[in-house]
């Protein structure tokens, strides 16, 4: 008891001090004494992110530290919602990690003042034409949302992706169908595949991000690029062509294309697990699904072994819309470096190694997603199908990606996700949904 | 019921109700265990989706090999045990004051304490972090102990005070007349009598400290200090479809709490009556 | 008088450690939230003072109304079932009964599972396409079981409440078990000698004697309902289209996904006010002894 009473005298003093600090909310944290980043000394950098997955990150860390004796990387990878909490807390209290994972647009912009411009690091490492190493969509999105006149790169893309549909090849073969290329074909394929134990078109629509990427694929197939004009104010969300996209989204539910209860199923782990177990013939995901065939993992399920049971295809074209299916995609994860990093040179070295060096090779070897730079390929493929698929993604699809899978403003992004859920449940008509997004857009700008 | 109580058929009838109810209650738990045995090589399930088609311990092996589970477990214990002890001590002291002593503004104090119950961790995480930082407790397990104790106190006070109130006031007065001071009455008389309530507090506090991950996530930076709850985060990615490993680690995390529950529930069988008289 | 002052001094010593911790880790965060609620602020960059602007915006926010309605449903539909089932289980499992410890553990385990597990598992159970409940429904022809409970905006909140009852009933049982230990067994013996049947004993003797336990559970239930977060977040993410949104899930979204820390703090402050108001109205309803513990 005596000991603990002494302890709380100490705590009392500390608490009084803490309350005395007051006025913490809303202030700038720049003046604070001593940064906590790089606590491990001159040869350590810290890294926190939600992607790449932990097992892959561990291999990348090892690749770097093996080549650079005496350095160490303290990496922590965890789920995205918690990552946002962690990043905000650390950025507002000077404990930001040296290297952070970022999404392009809103997230990067929120932390812009805490991040180091990276073009110097990039041109020192790769030469002045470094931008040509990357897929164009990655370079474009890395600066998404920068204020006018600010040409800095606060983040560099690590992984990129397309968003698209995946089919179960076994089911397709069994039923003698091919991947639908038009909306009519989608309807007829779904009809042919229904009544079985699997869902013809599994839409795991509980997740806002998934609803939005499916919608963006539909909208761009109707009128390529129009949503982005609506977003920058040169057009409107209530443009009839965008309302039409909401109508097609609605048809997924009302015309029996999506499975029952689609709006309650999450993509990960439930939807993905069902697709992998053969309980769905088609599912909207993206290029990253190729990671199911990661050769560094053992015991892959039969469908995933060398991608044997899967085939990617683009969202079908819409009647009266663009004649060709459009490519939608963008950055999966980008990396930034804290302005307060005690070790910016080492951080730059790690970042560039992971994007295009030995670390990147490890990353690519696991098929985690598509690399942000062109010309990097896995050292081993486990099947011809997997190799062809990889080549198609990296050489054919990715260079053609013109349309972003993200909207710039998190408020409009959320409003769109909400509106799509409202349409899916029948609470909103397509017209009302479009109006809701437009009013969120008006409020945000 | 007295007379029926010892007749076997009464318990039999009770079992008739309890067995189906317990079975129904178990369905999600069976599914949890089932999914933790779902191997990556065969994601198919059977028995209405409750059990894996080919159950395997591979997930447990994987998380055991991939993480220093025992080290994390030790950290969890280092956080939970002191926090439970402090909560019980400080909470019962406050409860004693609020139940048996004349405290000015009693209603205000008690009402204010309940405020701490309502604060969601995500709303206070940033400000709590700043306090810990200014106390020099960033990256320190003691900081977590103090925060959990503070947040657990209101619950402890409410529960223990209820138990203290059930102890007849005459007992207290008699002890005072016998010349016992208040500290002795609290420590020697009240605390032992409140054992059932204390066991509830122990379990509650254990659940809170054992399961929370947001606070250790932001306030700890050393891998060597991380508690068990930070392990599942790595198995819960946006693009990660391996529920088996996630469930296996979460099952493992739950095991110690079940063990503690089974251990303390024996304090829930001794009636108070005999002890007081 | 002197005796009184001395006792107040002693009482303060008993309360001191709790109050110190409380000041540091409860009062300060509240002050911080109140201050942040007057800002338009993303949590990282310099905020801009907007006075009561956030509060005005909140009052006009339709999602806020939904969260209040959902909280009311949650309070109404979790507390009573959890109390009644928990009480009955406690009475049953307070007797000498074979397998008592096993039963207790089974009913209690849901409360200790991580909400992440509970959310994912129940999503799979309730999935109308491939879930357990729907499969049983199709096998037995009971059509109602195949409803998309979690994905229909009119039922999502109730499905979440149902899961909550499953999760927390065992905890109420534990409470009542602890409460039953505090009942003087001579009261029960006396009633039995008077010929009370089992049901009468439960309804007329045990239930009223557990008044303090009921009130504690009521208080905890109201507050627990208001602060429900993880279960809803994992189960429905507050959807579809905010249909099952609760105040804390909305706070979380605003603070970390929409970068509106000022607005999120406003919701937190309102949450605190709602909690205080409900505590006070319970005081009104049950007398001030409800909070202070003085017999009324």
Automatic annotation (TrEMBL), chain B:
Membrane-topology annotation of the record: Multi-pass membrane protein
Similarity comment: family membership: Belongs to the binding-protein-dependent transport system permease family.
Pfam family, one: BPD_transp_1
Name of the protein described by the UniProt record: Carbohydrate ABC transporter permease
Record flagged with keyword Cell inner membrane: no
InterPro entries with a match to the protein in the record: MetI-like, MetI-like_sf
Subcellular location: Cell membrane
ABC transmembrane type-1 domain span: 73-264
Protein's GO biological process: transmembrane transport
UniProt keywords, alphabetically: Cell membrane, Membrane, Transmembrane, Transmembrane helix, Transport
Main location: membrane
From TrEMBL, chain C:
Topology in membrane: Multi-pass membrane protein
One Gene Ontology cellular component: plasma membrane
Subcellular location: Cell membrane
Keyword Zinc on entry: no
Highest taxon above the source species: Bacteria
GO aspect biological process, one term: transmembrane transport
A Pfam family that the UniProt record links to this protein: BPD_transp_1
Principal subcellular localization: membrane
Gene3D superfamilies xrefs: MetI-like
CDD domains: TM_PBP2
Keyword field: Cell membrane, Membrane, Transmembrane, Transmembrane helix, Transport
Domain ABC transmembrane type-1: 68-282
InterPro entries: ABC_transporter_permease, MetI-like, MetI-like_sf
Transmembrane segments: 12-31, 72-93, 105-125, 156-178, 256-277
Family: Belongs to the binding-protein-dependent transport system permease family.
Protein name per UniProt: Sugar ABC transporter permease
